[in-house]
Amino acid sequence: MFEWNDLITAFWAFFVLLPLVSLIHQLGHYLMALLFGGRSEIILGRGKLLFKLGTIQVNRYYFLDSYCHYESLKKNTRLTHILVHAGGVLLNLISILLVNLFIIIGWLPEAQFFYQFGYFTIYYMFFSLFPVQYSEKHASDGKQIINIVRNYSPSNVFD
Prior knowledge:
By secondary structure, the protein is α+β, with helices and mostly antiparallel strands. Helices cover 54% and strands 19% of the residues. A two-stranded antiparallel ribbon has the order 1-2.
């Protein structure tokens, strides 16, 4: 049963953990794009700009949405574009494995915070890979990967 004491846990989950999982996911895309010689930027949230740190922009409602824009991959192949879109899920998976490893070896405690981190990470991975077109210009990573496999040509620009 949800009680008043659970509000603190809910606060941490929605305003700290979910944005952290989202940032890790976007960093996966970002790092893959850099690996293949592209330019990339991360935008966390919506609304007015709170601050910008290099190529990471954090907006007022940082917990609502996030995305990574990339362009101009020097290694411009079907595989590199697939890896850029899969990079978010890959880094999410690595983060879950590391947290679990650190708990097993005793570097991190078995705490609800890390349990929730794992739960939100799996949630994020699932919905990122679920192939859905959100709008004309925005699709899930899974849908983007399918589009790349079906329609790739070196002149296409994938966002």
